[in-house]
Each structure stands twice: as structure tokens, then as C-alpha cells.
Amino acid sequence: MSNTEFKKAFDSVAPDPYMESRVLENIKTSNKKHFPLKPVLSGVLAFAVIAACAGGVHYKTTYTDRPFSVIVVSASDEITNSAVIGDKEISLPELTVEADADSSGDTGVYTNNNAGFAVSGDDIDYIQYKSENGYFFYADELKMIRDKLNGDYYAAVIPVSDADAQNINSLLKSKSVETVFDDYVSSHNVSEYFSGISTDMYNYQVEFLKCSDEIGYDDEDGYAFFLTDLSKTMDYYSGTGIVANGAETLTVDRYDISKEVLEKYYNEDEILMMTNVGYQPQAAVDALLNDPDMDKSALPGDEITITVTFKDGKKARKVITVSFDSKGAAHFAYK
């Protein structure tokens, strides 16, 4: 996922060498609170509500009626629920916009967990998302998987002997992986693994993993230190609006990863959830920031256009409306 808003958050706090990766993890697990001029991004994508049956919708001749399903996603306690929307809209109380005062008396606007979208269908090449009054943000896990399979994800992979692995796993019970790695480097010659790349350890996120558990290395034995270049981490994040310098459309590529390869590592729900696109109804947030006492059913809604391009080049499109009830809960329906 390159995400301007996320990057600003890192740059503004002078992060320590491993803060970037920790913040990216926190993005997945925090609720959102908004203050004027201080939006905070944090996406949780945990359960799916199927917002479209597979029936096609007819448009102008530039679009086909080929079926695909749209998934409305929101945060819950890691439970996967689903409900097919037909002629009726779906109410999603898990995405609620509300105003509240904190302990200092400042009133902020909370989006109670995040909602997002995913698409399911056959022979999809890529999906494009566009919002009239909100923005999207996306963690491109499929790109990560592709790069791992091609050996392009990690800056360095440093295998260790079985004896060292046993000692390292013991040390990790009381020390951080960064400290253990520093100690290992000081007593082992690892220069061959840093040919052409920086030797500054502050540039990397370090993990100690069993090779057979890691994508792209599962045919290898033993353990290794896996180093991720933090400067490239943001390449796997993208978005629209304030997240990406005003970009209007977010494109989600399916890449050329076979279903058989994905099923080797993930179950069906996990594969679907990888393509979740986080959604923030920013116009509603802004309206409530300006008038915390307003009728929430009058919050500005949104219109989301999802365009699917199939591998044969044909396109299909669906439009979803977003509105809010008196409690600030989001409702989704086809236009």
C-alpha cells in the first residue's frame, strides 16, 4: 500500500526505526477519531456483508452485464457474517458516525469502526473504486504475496544454523528480535547478504521466521532472519482523496496469482478479505464536526462506483449509495 496520509503520520513524529511497521499494524486494529483538521486513519476489516447478488446490471454498451458480487465490509470481533442484498438496502450499525467529547472537553467525531468493500467474481483483472464524498485506503496483500513468490519482497533473508536457531528462539523469549539480530550480526559474517543494499539496520524491519512457514520459502528448511526495507513498505498502501493527494480512483489489481497458489496458504474467507478496500465517509464526518448536534439522518451520503475489468478487457459497473439513519449508522443500497 503509497499512502500520503500514513506517511505524514510517520514523518510528523520522528519515528524510531521500527515505528513505521508498528503504525501500519495499528492501522488495522484501531477505531477512528476525528478532530477538526486532524483526521486519524485506522482501518479494521474483519467481517463481510454481501451487498450484491450475482445478477448483472445493464448499462450503456461500454459495459457488460457480466455478474460480480460486491462485499460491504465492517469491523467486528473477527466474525465473518454475510447477508445478500436484493431490493432492500443493508443497514450497517457497525459503521456509525457519532460525535462525543473527550476528557478535555474537546468534541471529536468518531467513526465506530471502518467499513470497506471487496469484490468477488470470475476472471477479474482489476477493480476500480470511486467515491463522491468519501475516500478509500487499501493494503495490497496480493502484491505482497506476488513479490514474496518472486523473491522481491524481502531486502535480505539470512539463514541460520540449527544450533543458532535454537539459541535465537530461546533469546527471543526475553529480548526483542532487533536486539537478538544485532547480537547475531556482531558475531557472524553476514556481509554477503547486504551486497548492493544498505547495511544500516535502522532501515529494516526484522523478523525471525521458520522458512517453511513463509510464502516463497516454504520448500526450505530451518530458520532465517527476514529483513524488510522500511522505505519500500508504503509501496503496498494506496488510497484516494486525502489519503493520496486527491486521487479520484483506487485500483485494486488481482495480479496473476492462481487460486491454487493462494489456497495453499489461505482459506476461502481469507482470500476474499485480502482484497478489502477501506472506506471512510468523509463528508459525513466533516458535517458532524461542523455541527455535532445535527440530525444524523441528514448527514451527507455518498455514491460509490465500482468498475470491474475482466481478463478479456470487458467491464461491468455497479453503483452503491450510502446514507445514514438517526443514529448515524450507515445504510448501503444499489442505485
How are the SSEs placed, and which strands pair?
Blueprint: H1 4-11, H2 19-27, E1 32-35, E2 38-39, E3 47-50, E4 69-74, E5 90-101, E6 107-112, E7 115-120, E8 124-131, E9 135-139, H3 141-149, E10 156-159, H4 162-171, H5 177-187, E11 204-210, E12 223-229, E13 237-239, E14 249-253, H6 259-265, H7 268-273, E15 277-280, H8 282-290, E16 302-310, E17 315-324, E18 329-334
Antiparallel strand pairs: 1-2, 1-6, 3-4, 4-7, 5-6, 5-18, 7-15, 8-14, 8-16, 9-13, 9-15, 10-12, 11-12, 16-17, 17-18
Architecture overview:
The protein is of the alpha+beta class and 335 residues long. 21% of the residues lie in helices and 32% in strands. The protein contains eight helices and 18 strands. It has helices at residues 4-11, 19-27, 141-149, 162-171, 177-187, 259-265, 268-273, 282-290; strands spanning 32-35, 38-39, 47-50, 69-74, 90-101, 107-112, 115-120, 124-131, 135-139, 156-159, 204-210, 223-229, 237-239, 249-253, 277-280, 302-310, 315-324, 329-334. A nine-stranded antiparallel β-sheet has the order 2-1-6-5-18-17-16-8-14, covered by helices on one side. A six-stranded antiparallel β-sheet has the order 3-4-7-15-9-13, with no helix packed on it. The longest helix is centred in the middle third of the chain and has 11 residues, at 177-187. The two termini are 30 Å apart.
